[in-house]
Amino acid sequence: MIAGMRNRVAYAALVTAALACNEGLQPDTCPGICGTVTFRGALPDSTQAVYVVAYHTFPHSRDSLFTFQPSVGLLRALPLDGVPAFYALPVNTGRYEWVVAVWVKQGFNLSNADSTLREAGYYRDPANPAQPGVVNVSAPQPDSIDFVIDFGQMHRPCTYYAPPCP
Amino acid sequence: MKRLIILTVLAAGLCRTAGAQDTAVIYGTLADTIGQPLRGTVRVDSGGRGVVADGRGHYRLGVPAGRVILRVAHIGFRTLVDTVTVAAGDSLERDYRLPAAAVELQPTIVTAAKRSQLLDRAVTSVALVSDTDLAHRAVATVDEAVNRAPGVLFLNGQVNIRGSSGFVEGLGSRVLLLVDGVPANQGDRGGIDWDMVPLAQVQRVEVVKGAGSSLYGSSAFGGVVNLITHDIPVGSHARVRATGGAYANPPADAWRFRDYTGGLGGLDVTGSYGTQALRGSLTLGGRHSDGYREQDRSDQWETAGKAEWLPQPGTRVSASGAWTSHQYEVFPTWCVPGACDTRGQAFQPFMIDRSGRGSYTRSDHGYIAATLDRTPSARFAWQARGSWLRTHFTDFNPDDWSVSNRLGAELRGVVRRSGGDDRVVTLGVEGAHSDVTSDIFGDRGQVGDHSQVELGAYGEAEQLVGPARLTAGTRLDYFSVDGAKQTAVLSPRIGAVLPTGAGTWRASAGRGFRAPTLAERFVTTRAFGFDVIDNPDLDPETAWSFEVGNALPLASWGRLDAALFWTEARRLLEPTFVLVPPDTVPKIQIRNVSRARLRGLDASLTITPFASPVSASVAYTFVDARDLATDSLLAFRPKHLLTLAADYRWRAVSVGADFRYTSRIDRIELEPVFGHDPRVAARVLDLRAGWQRRSLSARLLVTNALNYIYNLVPRTLEPVRTASVVLTWTY
Predict the structure, then answer these.
(1) Which end of chain B, C or N, has fewer beta carbons within 10 A?
(2) Which residue has the higher pLDDT, A74 or B693?
């Protein structure tokens, strides 16, 4: 009797364990800002990486250059094989004035950022493509913040400072 | 004259005395475990001598002096293997008690040595999917059946045996498919159409693991799968099988892609009629599926037939054929932001990339084969066969098409010394001509015609040496592509089987190879957003496979089979990114690039307790697959594959379950494109229940009962939970 009960308990435990192990793919909402970037121009030989980052406010000075989101630890370099690439930025809800692709030159460090970083493209206002598009991250999150990265049209960060660099 | 007669008699007496000094006698009784005498057999395992016990279970057997392995057997009882040492002229008493066994009849296989042999005499590992397995699992397609074999894993339709093939979008298979011994890989792509033969025609499946090129030539690089079709019984017989079912809806609202529940259904009818001399069978069937994801509908019509003529004992003429027309929507890849409206999701596994909307394929394929088997005597048998395999597909969006043919022929003879099996020699010649006409095998969209000729000659001998069986053989293959590029490949194999008290040991070393398919050489198309370019100068990929294994009967309740394997592969054909100046965007080209090593363990335990309603099995495969050229993991080879199965039968009712675990695939090809996609281990539970009464049976099958959502190849969702009912009427 007891042995039979043990068997049933073991069986039930086995079934429960089997049922509990469902760790398959789960719905994954866009963690903040998502989209697809397409590439133009030839990738410079001196490329270290290209990242997409987002700024709450437009960085008009060297001091605000590193106020982007997500944090450095969550940055993922874009694949640079020339095909359109999906990106997903795990950022908090809020308003973002600039979603920008940053080209990083080999040898980059914090002290030489002005010469080793470039703006390579940014999300543009659909109504006025000359201007950066503002992204509001809320539920449901935006998932089509698409833009073009043009390696032939890159700009130093100080281009956007006030005043801009010469 | 009298002196001569006396000398002759003396000489004969001396000879007899000398012979007696080299022999001994073993005697005793045979009985079951409660002492009832058994009229079983006792024989020396090395072949020659044996006796049958009398009605009281007594036996007396003359044996060679020295160490002797005895095999004691009686149908319905477990066979005992005993090793004794007996001096010349001496006698030894041995009494044997045989425990009862559910089935002690060893399966006979036909694939491992290209002839009939007992399973335990194969020098390489062989997995079987029996007709009982097929009926229990109520699978609907051949690939579902093969996917249940230990050590076998399907990656989106591409079969892997011990990690052999990886995944290359069906461009070439490192596994050879046979239908009753007739090669059935596509003539153009070298891949396998698993719907070539209706499952209703298949009686059992043999999966030979490891390189089989010494007998089968190209494609048998990682193994051979042989579909054995049903024998046609005498008399009138019929079978009707109807299937209906439904796919589970996506487990999350965010993934819903339609407002109804997808269904599937099918009907196949088989009829046969046979006399002693003439027999025939015909199967007609059709299936429809709504699919479990967006743009995944399919419709299939299939027919297959077989005819046999047995004009005299020892002669059989058979003809068989099948034709399948399969129209199916193509699910290209699942969509990610930018490729469709993902509703805020990072990926939508049930929905397609909008660039593939409207993709659709019509695939018609079939084969006919004719075989003449002659067994003029117990010492000699021969077989001649011819076959024609045709595949034709038309793709819509992107629009392309291909027609290919593969004509094959083989002549094979098997010679047995003295009609026994202590020495068996198999010799044969084989030839094939493949051709393709397609708009993706030409230069930049032009229609291209290509052909390949394959000629092979092979021989393998098996010799009994003491208790061991030694095998040695080789095959020479010659290839010519478009009448120009010519290649010859030699594929030797040696092996040994040694029965002992601790199971039957087997060991083998053999060379495998695979000639590049016409598709790998000449295809020019677009895949994953990249141009695919041709490479006519490809060489065959080759491998050396080594294996040591043991098959151990476990009393009357089970069987344990384990093998260590090691494969060293050279010049593996893999898709590679290449930059062709002045282009700035890389292209995909098949190249001989990789050196690889695949090694691991393949083990299975089958538990079938005598007179018990329960049966179970466990199979585990560990694969350590390394790309030696880049010192990295080989793509698309999961390390662990575990399969558990259990069945319980009570009168007319049976229930059962399968659980399959596939570890997360650590590395994939095109890592820059798909490397950021989520990948998980696969844990799939299948449940089944059946009821049978006379000629009617009903089976309920719930595959992926946990509705575990996973993928094995990039952005391609594996099937969700599917519940189906299969009703079968047999006459």
Answers:
(1) N
(2) B693
Task: Point out which residues pair with B552 in neighbouring strands.
Answer: B560
What gap in Å lies between CA A49 and CA A36, rounded to an integer? 17
Contact B246, B264 (CB under 8 A): yes
Distance from CA of B620 to the nearest CA of A (A): 17
* Interface contact A81-B345, CB threshold 8 A: no
DSSP codes of every residue in B604-640: EEEE--TT-SEEEEEEEEEEEEEETTTTEEPTT--SE
CB contact under 8 A, B673 and A83: yes
Q: Which of A23, A142, A144 sits opposite B680 (nearest CB)?
A: A23
- Look at residue B424 and tell me whether its pLDDT is greater than 90: yes
Cis peptide before A142 (omega within 30 of 0): no
* Number of neighbours of residue B519 by Cβ within 10 angstroms: 28
Most confident of B169-173, B183-187, B471-475: B471-475
Q: Give the CATH architecture of domain B22-98.
A: Sandwich (2.60)
Which residue among B337, B676, B681 places its CB closest to the CB of A35? Answer: B337
Show me where the domains of chain B are located.
Answer: 22-98, 108-730
* Inter-chain CB proximity B344 and A35 less than 8 Å: no
pLDDT score, position B14: 39
Pairwise pLDDT comparison (B7 vs B228), residue with the higher score = B228
Nearest residue in B to A137, CA atom: B344
Helix and strand totals (H; E) in chain A: 2, 8
Report the gap between the CA of A114 and the closest CA in chain B (Å): 28
CATH number for the domain whose boundaries are B108-730:
2.40.170.20
**pLDDT tens-place string over residues A123-147:** 999 899 999 999 998 765 556 788 9
Partners of A31 on chain B (C-beta within 8 Å) are 346
Peptide bond into B638 cis (omega under 30): no
Q: What is the pLDDT of residue B8?
A: 42
Whole-number pLDDT of residue B106? 72
In the A/B pair of chains, how many CB contacts fall below 8 A?
93
Do residues B523 and B517 lie in contact, with contact meaning Cβ atoms separated by under 8 Å? Answer: no
Contact B346 A34 (CB under 8 A): yes
Instruction: Count Cβ atoms within 10 A of the Cβ of residue B261 and give its class: 0-12 exposed, 13-18 middle, 19 or more buried.
Output: exposed
Q: Does A25 touch chain B (CB under 8 A)?
A: yes
CB-CB contact of A92 with A71 (8 Å): no
Listing DSSP states for B375-430 in one string gives: EEETTEEEEEEEEEEEEEEEEETTTEEEEEEEEEEEEEEEEEGGGSSSEEEEEEEE
Question: Taking CB atoms and an 8 Å limit, are A86 and B680 in contact across chains?
Answer: no
Indicate the residue type of B226. N
Which of B249, B336, B661, B711 to probe the A interface (max A CBs under 10 A)?
Answer: B336
Which domains does chain A possess?
Answer: 30-160 (2.60.40)
Q: What is the mean pLDDT of chain A?
A: 81
The pLDDT, as a whole number, for residue A18 is 55
Which one of B709, B713, B718, B720 makes the best mutation probe of the A interface by having the most chain A beta carbons within 10 Å? Answer: B709
**Cα–Cα distance list, B196 to B220, B227, B302, B304, B422 (Å):** 19, 11, 8, 9, 38
Is the distance from CB of B626 to CB of B612 less than 8 angstroms? no
- Which range, of B89-93, B138-142, B580-584, B698-702, averages the lowest pLDDT? B580-584
- Residue B67 C-alpha from the chain's centroid: 38
CB B629 within 8 A of CB B591: no
Tell me the per-residue pLDDT of B319-331, one tens digit each, with 9 for 90 and over.
999 999 999 999 8
ipTM of the complex: 0.72
Chain A CA closest to residue B716: A25
Residue B591 structure tokens = 């190249």
User: Residue A142: closest CA among chain B residues belongs to which residue?
Assistant: B344
